[in-house]
Write a structure and sequence with these properties.
The structure holds 2 protein chains of 2 kinds. By secondary structure, chain A is mainly α. Chain A has a domain of 214 residues. Helix content of chain A is 72%, strand content 1%. In chain A, strands 1-2 form a two-stranded antiparallel sheet. In chain A, a hairpin with a 4-residue loop joins strand 1 and strand 2. In chain A, helix 3 packs parallel to helix 13 and helix 9 packs across helix 12. Chain A is globular and about 70 Å long. By secondary structure, chain B is mainly α. Chain B has one domain. Chain B contains 22 helices and 4 strands. Chain B has a two-stranded antiparallel ribbon with strand order 1-2. A two-stranded antiparallel ribbon of chain B has the order 3-4. The chains are: A mainly alpha, B mainly alpha.
């Protein structure tokens, strides 16, 4: 392996460094605290992640169209990396803003929380830059281990413990697949650099290894993004984890896993280099994508618990993202931009939606059932309006970011040579109609029904900020998508 | 170009009003209603400027406003109108204040949200009528959906939950398949020309292979047929109408249903002419079934609102038949019938609202003898009913007559490369004509049940006649119905050039031979010659068939 340390490379990694250092500082700071209240740590958390976001933006503007290899062939700096790292940083900041009120209200104040969150986010940023099997693995593990811990932080909650345990075991299992798949690919290609791997695989005389390795990777990433049939953990974990953590998992963790898939399947295994057939790994992947969208939606229709409903909805969104990954691997020019746009829109929508879930609940009464939301529109019109916008965005109704994101991804899937993915687009589109049904169930409850008892929402500045900003961004992304399309390089 | 600001302005004004009304305090419902009236009247007045700038002799799009919207995608914010859409736009801006005036204080809760929903709905409808970019059109098309859903769901009747979700799901399924067809078209255009765009004029240059056209047309047609609504897809309509508040019903019937026909005219048929030719028999037959079936079912209703809802199924069947007849009479008649239907059905629904506000029932059996009690209302309602039934000198007659006339002559006048464009045009025309008779029957039946007979229900004894506000809403409608019935010429003259252009373009494009996606007129000369020969052959066949039909009908030709 070719690893050379060039101090100048660190300049390109400032967002990563800020995030990691801030994370460590936060863990240290915990040692100096007494008592229960840790809300003052939020300030540093938000400052750290926003600093990382700003650094990403600055570097995005500086780097232009260049693709700079860093630390030998370990990492790469390109525009997409910085868009993604800015996204992860902003989502982290939003999750942090949501947390203190929820911690106080539901009594799970643990100081390490913020430190772990930033360390996990640093793993995500590493994934945004990853250009090597080693860094992909490191990134995924750094990110995942942090999230396992965050998931378990509500120590007194049995549901929470169950969720964390399930998540951890399944995650560890998936890591095994990941490691094994990487080992096989390395064996076939003789290199761990993703760029070189693409060239090496074109001439490999071990197609069996490549098929097996790629297939194991499909399974491993299937677990990570919660694709059917590897999705069993997601509803339990999403329901059991504290709501801000659920938001973090559904938005940032999923986005980072997809970012790793962009590199893995778009770069190392992408293009027409595979020695077998035109679809290669994509043939299991398209099936998984179709099944994921469909099962995710149909299961969501049957849910009464909003967090579980959103969990299944996030499964179906993972399916749409997989459609994008397939399109990318099959050579659709706009797929990379489409996926990144989708990640931005989806993350913002998810953060906002879970923030409202956190807002509506209060001590001893989390109000997670759809029926519990009856009459929200009359009593808290602002929150209900925000939720409606976000749900419409989830459902892909214009003029929201969610609509344009779906439009963009499906459009890129249509670009695949010879219309191979038209059927997949049809599946996705029909599912959008199904999804409208359950998203509107919540809208129906909020507006069309009377409240059975008054709401006592969790109020905090941070939470309200997230609730206000996310729908605005989502609407802006839908009405004026031009800026964002340019941002993601479309 | 002078006047190109008008269209964006009339989309923007209601949106501005919606934002404005949401910023006012929650309890000031009089203020909210005032803001609603102000902005809708203002929008109407501004929309009248369209007449000032519109050149009735030109056939292309006018008052075009075009800015690039999403550069990476080639989507434009491009609006414009022609003779087909101009009156639909005016109908929309006209009906909004009339509706708000006519329903007055019928809405008591969440007035602010109600006004906002109506205004957003208006913006969506106007946007969809004037959009000249498929992406923009799709966005507006969906934007209309949500306020309508809220109107039914929040301010609707007993079964509003069911009706609202049914409305959304039906519409959504149709429009999403349309979206797939849009993708396909967009990507094909991009791969043929190398530039990606969603502008309508540019996409219309592209000729797709026949198979793809059939599929794409089917996808578009499903979306539009649900909206029309064509016969087997109409089941959402009675539910939505019955549960919606009066204002919702008026706008739904008065404007929203027109998007089905308008969509066929503006998008489905010009974009996929061969697909249109393939599916035309199916649609024409369904339209005729709808005309007769709608009339029969309407006759069987006891609920007035349901009766009028089914009458829409029947009346919109005429419009669908008219456009697929592809004659100048058929298409202009269809547009005229849409405008007339917009006025008469709005009047019918407003009248039902008037009755419901006083008696809180919509059952025909509960009424009777109201003529003596409410003479002014009865007189006005008689005119509206007669207009809807198609009495000569009122608006309904012109449209229905023209569509039937156009259909009847479809076999003779349409010089298409598709001789079987609609089968048995004379038979279909004759069947459709029976729909006019049935229409008169059920509408008169309704009128008789409500206004004639004895005033034998005690509760009907002291119903007050129309108030000034209600009169204010009805008078413009009645005037419109009279004017459109007595003086159809000015409107038809304005439509004429655009309708002729539509038919000309369609006739030219439908003859394009099958082949991989290409721009019209770019085929190699040899293939073009083959295609021309095919067109000539089809024309001969059409003429021969027309002769045959003529002989079969006793040598009338």
């Amino acid at each position: 392996m070719n690893f050379s340390f060039n101090p100048a490379d660190l300049g390109y990694l400032i967002p990563y460094l800020i995030m990691a250092v801030a994370g460590m500082l936060l863990v240290l700071a915990e040692a100096f605290y007494r008592g229960q209240d840790r809300s003052s740590l939020v300030g540093l958390t938000v400052a750290g992640s926003l600093a990382a976001a700003v650094a990403s933006v600055v570097l995005y503007r500086q780097i232009g169209d260049a693709r700079v290899p860093l630390l030998g062939v370990m990492l790469i700096a390109a525009r997409t990396s910085y868009v993604l790292s800015a996204l992860f940083s902003v989502v982290t900041a939003l999750a942090a803003l949501m947390s203190p009120a929820h911690q106080k209200e539901h009594d799970w104040q643990i100081g390490e929380y913020y430190g772990v969150m930033l360390l996990s986010a640093s793993g995500m940023i590493m994934l945004a830059h990853a250009a090597n099997l080693v860094t992909i693995f490191l990134g995924i593990e750094t990110m995942s281990i942090g999230v396992y811990v965050m998931c378990a932080m509500r120590r007194r909650s049995r549901r929470g413990n169950e969720a964390a345990m399930k998540y951890f075991l399944i995650g560890a299992f998936a890591t095994g697949f990941l490691m094994y798949g990487m080992a096989l690919l390395y064996g076939a290609a003789g290199t761990s650099s993703l760029v070189e791997m693409q060239k090496a695989l074109a001439t490999t005389n071990n197609p069996g290894l490549v098929i097996a390795g790629a297939f194991l990777l499909v399974v491993a990433f299937g677990f990570k993004v919660a694709a059917v049939p590897f999705h069993m953990w997601a509803p339990d974990a999403y329901e059991g984890a504290p709501t801000p953590v659920t938001a973090f998992m559904a938005a940032a963790v999923k986005a980072a896993a997809v970012a790793a898939m962009i590199r893995m399947f778009g770069l190392a295994l992408g293009g027409d280099v595979l020695p077998f057939g035109s679809l290669g790994w994509a043939s299991p992947m398209v099936v998984i994508a179709a099944v994921t969208i469909t099962i995710g939606n149909i299961s969501a229709v049957r849910q009464d618990n909003i967090k579980r409903m959103l969990a299944y909805s996030s499964i179906s969104h993972a399916g749409v993202l997989l459609v994008g990954v397939c399109a990318l691997g099959l050579g659709a020019a706009s797929a990379n931009g489409a996926i990144v746009y989708y990640l931005i829109a989806y993350s913002m929508t998810t953060m906002g939606a879970f923030a409202i879930v956190a807002y509506v609940g209060s001590k001893g009464r989390e109000r997670l059932l759809v029926d519990d939301w009856a009459g929200l529109g009359a009593q808290h019109p602002g929150a209900a309006l925000a939720m409606t916008v976000l749900l419409l965005s989830f459902g892909g109704v214009p003029p929201t970011g969610g609509f344009f994101a779906k439009f963009y991804v499906f459009k890129s899937a249509m670009e695949v040579y010879d219309g191979q993915l038209i059927w997949l687009v049809l599946v996705g589109v029909v599912n959008s109609a199904i999804s409208i049904y359950y998203y509107l169930r919540i809208v129906t409850a909020m507006y069309f029904r009377e409240a059975n008892q008054p709401f006592a929402p969790t109020r905090s500045g941070g939470l309200l900020f997230v609730i206000a900003i996310c729908p605005i961004i989502v609407l802006e992304m839908g009405i004026m998508p031009g800026f964002w399309v340019k941002l993601v390089g479309g | 170009m002078p006047g190109n600001f008008v269209l964006p302005l009339i989309i923007g004004l209601p949106l501005l009003g919606a934002i404005f009304v949401m910023c006012t305090p929650k309890t000031e419902s009089t203020l909210h209603r005032g803001i609603g009236m102000t902005f809708t009247v203002l929008t109407f007045l501004v929309s009248l400027l369209v007449l000032r700038f519109f050149n009735p002799k030109a056939d292309g799009y006018q008052l075009v406003f075009d800015v690039e919207w999403i550069p990476g995608l080639g989507a434009h914010f491009k609006t414009g109108i022609d003779g087909i859409s101009i009156f639909l736009v005016l109908l929309t801006t006209f009906l909004m204040p009339v509706t708000l005036l006519g329903t007055g204080k019928a809405i008591e809760k969440h007035v602010r949200e109600f006004i906002a929903a109506m205004l957003v709905l208006e913006a969506g409808m106007l946007g969809a009528f004037v959009a000249l970019d498929v992406f923009l059109f799709y966005v507006f098309w969906e934007v209309m959906l949500i306020p309508m859903y809220l109107l039914i769901g929040i301010w609707g009747g007993q079964r509003r939950l069911y009706a609202s979700i049914k409305f959304v799901i039906y519409t959504m399924v149709g429009s999403l398949l349309m979206l797939v067809a849009i993708f396909y078209l967009y990507v094909q255009y991009g791969s043929v020309t190398g530039t990606y765009t969603t502008e309508l004029d540019k996409l219309m240059e592209l000729s797709l292979p026949y198979g793809a056209q059939n599929w794409c047309f089917a996808a578009f047609a499903l979306a539009f047929a649900i909206k029309v609504p064509l016969f087997p897809l109409h089941t959402w309509l009675p539910d939505a109408h019955v549960e919606a508040p009066t204002a919702g019903s008026v706008i739904l019937a008065g404007v929203l249903l027109k998007f089905g026909i308008y969509g066929f005219l503006r998008y489905a048929m010009p974009l996929f002419p061969h697909g249109a030719a393939t599916w035309a028999p199916v649609i024409a037959i369904l339209a005729v079934i709808g005309i007769i079936y709608g009339a029969f079912v309407a006759f069987a209703q006891d609920d007035v609102k349901k009766l009028v809802a089914y009458s829409s199924v029947s009346h919109l069947g005429f419009c669908a038949l008219g456009i697929f007849a592809l004659t100048a009479y058929g298409v202009s008649g269809s547009i005229y019938a849409m405008l007339s239907h917009g006025l008469t059905t709005s009047g019918l629904f407003l009248g039902i609202g008037v009755l419901y506000e006083r008696r809180h029932t919509r059952r025909l059996a509960e009424y009777g003898g109201l003529w003596k009690q409410m003479p002014i209302f009865a007189g006005i309602y008689l005119i509206v009913t007669m207009g809807s039934a198609g009495l000569p000198a009122l608006s309904g007659f012109v449209g229905e007559f023209l569509t039937i006339f156009g259909t009847f002559n479809a076999g003779d006048t349409f010089p298409a490369a598709a001789p079987n464009f609609i089968p048995y045009p004379r038979l279909l025309g004759a069947l459709a004509a029976t729909g006019v008779i049935f229409g008169a029957i059920y509408l008169l039946y309704m009128f008789q049940k409500v206004f004639f007979g004895k005033l034998d229900k005690a509760k009907n004894g002291n119903l007050p006649d129309l108030k000034g506000r209600e009169l204010g809403a009805f008078i413009p409608l009645v005037l419109g119905i009279f004017l459109m019935g007595l003086f159809p010429r000015p409107l038809l003259t304005v439509m004429e050039p655009s309708v002729q252009k539509f038919l000309r373009d369609f006739g030219k494009r439908v003859g394009e031979p099958d082949g991989p996606a290409h721009l019209y007129g770019t085929l190699p000369p040899k293939e073009q010659a083959k295609a021309n020969a095919q067109i000539q052959q089809n024309l001969d066949a059409a003429a021969a068939r027309a002769d045959q039909v003529g002989k079969a009908m006793g040598g009338a030709r």
